[in-house]
Inverse folding.
């Protein structure tokens, strides 16, 4: 259990052990989530990253990307298409 004192302006200092556990660094934003009588402190950057990873995983699945080789192959194909469009010769 960690304790923090509330200042007159409503500010608290998050104990170092909690900051480390949540990966909170200077400048990060935190989220307070009310879960039925308990308030949970979350690292909002971490939540956003997890959401992005989830969305990207869904998009990768739709595109048929299942592993790193698929990503490399896709990058090669896109680069090849871009090169051909840029340097294609007429005639």
């Amino acid at each position: 259990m960690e304790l923090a004192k509330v200042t007159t302006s409503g500010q608290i200092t998050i104990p170092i052990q909690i900051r480390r556990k949540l990966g909170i660094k200077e400048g990060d934003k935190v989220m307070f989530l009310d879960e039925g009588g308990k308030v949970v402190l979350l690292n909002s950057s971490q939540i956003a990253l997890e959401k992005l990873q989830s969305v990207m995983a869904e998009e990768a699945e739709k595109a048929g990307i299942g592993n790193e080789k698929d990503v490399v192959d896709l990058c090669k194909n896109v680069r090849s298409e871009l090169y051909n469009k840029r340097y294609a010769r007429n005639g």
The first strand starts at residue 30 and ends at 35. Residues 1-66 form a domain with the Pemi-like Protein 1; Chain: D fold (CATH 2.10.260.10).
